[in-house]
Each structure stands twice: as C-alpha cells, then as structure tokens.
Amino acid sequence: MNRERTAGAQRRRPVQRRSVERFERLLDACAEVLEDAGLVALTTKEVARRAGVPIGTLYQFFSDKEGLLGALAARNLELFLGRVAARLERERPGDVRGAVDAAVEEFVAMRRTVTGFGVVDFGAAGQDHALDPALDNNTAVAGRLRELLADLVGVPDDQELEIALRVALECADGVLNLAFRTDPRGDPQLIAECKRVLTSYLSDRIGAPRTG
User: Fold this and answer.
1) d(CA 141, CA 77)
2) H or E segment to which residue 188 belongs
3) Total-model pTM
4) What is the distance between the alpha carbons of residues 67 and 57, in angstroms, rounded to a whole number?
C-alpha cells in the first residue's frame, strides 16, 4: 500500500530572498541526489550537505525527505505547466492533436534535460499524494491541465474534461515510462504512439475546441 504524504508536509514557504535562494538550493540538491543515486539514497543529511546549508536550515522548510520530494514535484509541475502554456500561447493549436503534441513533447524534453525529473516528475513511486494530500498525483495534475486547456485551447471546462484528462494521464504514464525504459532518451516510436493514443482518445472524448 502506498503511504500518503501526511508526515512529509512542507513546514513553510520562504519569503525573504535569502531564504528563497536556500530553499531552491535544497531542491536542486535533492534533484542531484536523485539523478546520481536514485530515490533509495535520498537523505536529508546528504541534501543539506550538497546544498551547503546546515541540516537545521533544511528542517526549517521540510519536516522530512517526503516534504522535499513533494516540493520538488510541485516545482516540476509548475515548470511543466509554464512550458506548455508558453508553447500553446505561441503556437495556438487548432485541435486536440496540437495540444497533445505540446504536452508530450515538453514532458519528454524535461525528462531528457531536467535533473532528477526521471525519478520524481510530479511524484515518486510510492508517493501518490506528493502534490496534494487529498488527491493522487495524476488527479492533481489533471486539475491543473484542465485549467490550462480550457483557457488556452478553448475546450469546454467541465467534469467530462477532467475525467478525460485523468484517463489520458494514466495512459501517458504507462507508455512514456515504457519509452524511457526501452531507451534512456525515450524511444521515438513509443513517444509517437503515446501521442497517437492520446490524440485519438481525447478527440473522441472532448471533441474539437470551440472557436470564437
């Protein structure tokens, strides 16, 4: 059974610039440990050492390593949503295919380039509530994508969209995990198949975007 992220809550958000810098340095160090040694090697002591801050400073922000993972997952999600939003604003796709291509391609790019993203994208294995204590990770991500797509692509913002996105995310998880398990850079054929599956499913479920 996966443990919910109740003990791993973030203690406080930094406000002053120096605190923000330390907070970000701790998340960078957390990502480095994950990239270098994996989830099993992650400890608060090692993160503090790599960040060059006292362990007490880490505990000012995080109660434990689950708190670190949750904050890193949240940062990754904000980066992903920002990249997708910027691309949708720039390209203004006229159909579901364009939105799917943007989301999948930005995720793949982050998987290839963002430190630690391959271990913790929007949550780690066994951390189903990294983003929100009340929601599993894919449901939390679906909620944010629903807002983004409704605003920028023009699909109806309703319960049907949220359910469709939850299903699409579960499918994408499986296919993209397979793509990167097959090839460290992501198997191009499997990535293309992921786009094909999501485009077909979402086009059928939510139809063409509204215009006007």
Assistant:
1) 8
2) helix 188-206
3) 0.89
4) 14
